[in-house]
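Flavin-dependent monooxygenase
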Amino acid sequence: MNAVPSPRIAVVGAGIGGLACARILHRHGRRVTVFEREASAHARWQGGMLDLHVDTGQAALRAAGLFEEFRALARPEGQELRGLDPITGALVHHERPADGASGAPEIDRGQLRGLLLGSLPPGTVHWGQSVRGVAPLDDGTARLRFGDGTTQDFDLVVGADGAWSRTRPALSDATPTYTGDTIVETFLDDVDTRHPALARLVGNGTLAAKSGRTMLSAQRNSGGHLRVYAGLHVPADWHVAAGLDLDDTAAVREHLLAVFDGWHDSLLDLLRESDGGFVNRPLHVLPVGHTWDHVPGITLLGDAAHLMPPYGIGANLALLDGADLATALAAHDDLDQAVRAYENLMLPRAAAAARACAELTDTLTADTVINVDAARHHLNERLLHHQTAR
């Protein structure tokens, strides 16, 4: 008897969700190809810290067989949260993780991505391969169209290509909308040696000061690296209205210092002393409860499926999506049944999380920074309740 050929599976996007899916498929003996538009694994900075939760991100890494490697890289001490009064600089809230606490240890996104990449066979990820779109075919397969004009057909295309997914239009007309909030990001290097006062100010985890919807925060990453985030409630084209060239570091710095005029000097030093330029990150979301009618041969995971505000849940859901999809594909002989089973699990879970994020946004609009962590815990509890209730 001839063996049934392994399905041809393509993952679009080498972010952590797509890589988790590829890793678990590989563990189950399934072939998978990952297409990534970036030229290499080190083409750009991968972002700051991620706090991975037991029932979502950590569960996905257990399914990937990478949990012990994750623990070796993770920093439980990174769960520390320091809330400062923006005007006086006084410490108004301080949460320290208990010894051995592992509920949500932090890890650099780049480290986590590197861990997942290193677990895949060489050649799994095709770098510098941008995808322009995907189309379903009459036989239940799908055709990928690449930036160079070539095409390839697959039994399943998984869109793990983020907020501005090129895969999503094959399933949904939804597009991300601007939330009204923007993050302007910068960084400091070697803070323990070069900026010891700021290192002490931030501590081992996250520092935040907030007034209404304006916020300054900083996160300790590995290797003495500090990421700084200025949160602004502004129009999406705020820099155009201000006559700013975002590549003009000095001008952007001066503008931000004016925005935060009157805030305590210790906080303003996060902007004054930054080592790099400023990156503009307007925040977008997909509609709460975003869904689609099932289309054979195509599905989505992570931000491509359910883009939410950055409250610490998106990365966890992306990892869990990848794990659930790969597990379903390994457990079902029928590929289309597997994808349906995954979507029936993922879409209601994502809708519940998106509703919780919307509620949290309303809370944080008027609330103070000292309640941010408690609100995030509430969000994760809501998600866990949804999972257990199924």
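thats it. Residues 178-284 form a domain with the D-Amino Acid Oxidase; Chain A, domain 2 fold (CATH 3.30.9.30). Residues 335-366 form the longest helix (32 residues). bye
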